[in-house]
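User: Study the shape:
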Amino acid sequence: MITDVPGVLVGHHERVGDGWATGTTVVLVPEGAVGAVDQRGGAPGTRETNLLEPENLVQRVNAVCLSGGSAYGLAAADGVMRWLAERNLGFPVGTQPHEVVPIVPAAVLFDLPRSDWGNRPDASFGYAACEAASGSVAQGTVGAGAGAAVGSLKGGIGTASEVVGEYTVGALAAVNAAGEAVDLTTGRAYAADHGDFGVNWPSRPADLPSRRTDLNTTIGAVAVDAALSKAEARRLAVAAQDGLARAVRPAHTMFDGDTVFALATGAHELPDASGPFGAAARPAALDALCSAAARVFARAMVHGLLAATTAGGVPAYRDVWPEAFQPG
């Protein structure tokens, strides 16, 4: 889970049923983290991403808000800001503890067809997601994944992590892509070789009606407990996009706004030039973290696919290939 990275918490809030299938997920870093972002595809929906450019003033963020609702869902970040401001967490702009501006970059995915028109996340969703934040991450049809779809199937929230030396790299993805995450002729996930997912991959074609997938977007975050600059953190986000491309085909289309944030909490320094590997030590260590970021993001996307349940009229993987979850 992304919360295996110390200092990272995750909260969800969603509404499913009675004309609703949407929600918000918040990745909280109460002590702050160096932030960066990488955006691909032709249809992004984002907020406060320009401040993450390496040359700009603000270095650390307090949370990342991921939401359904297309551009309307960006309002969920207002609730995240309010929750943080009530706790005096943010960029100091005055002499008093409460005089802060919480830094909350956000991205949204397109899930509007899964709800009745007008049912989309607002500031209350972001606030409630913060209230629910903890070190345990529910997966599937929750939070920003409540109304997600990936190709012909239901998408959802997935998370994964791995240890690289003394560092932990974690990822969280809201899987919602124009491309397919599964070979529909066999039922095998494209990124199945990125981990042991506890399923018996089937070998039969899907029986699925065609579904329009013209507006989508996979959004997520990758976190590490290393001390990185904003530019180095962006390399982590860039690498995580490689994991996205391994998990869906095609990826980064004109109809996707794929956006991945990176958070570096700074608990462990990267090696410097004084060691036995000289000037190559730091970039080599960063490269290892980037390779891990791609792997964990791909795994997170498969977890989101497998954990999803049918909602908003989109069938889940577990309903199309139930035999994958049977013993043996």
Remarks:
- The chain has a mean pLDDT of 95.
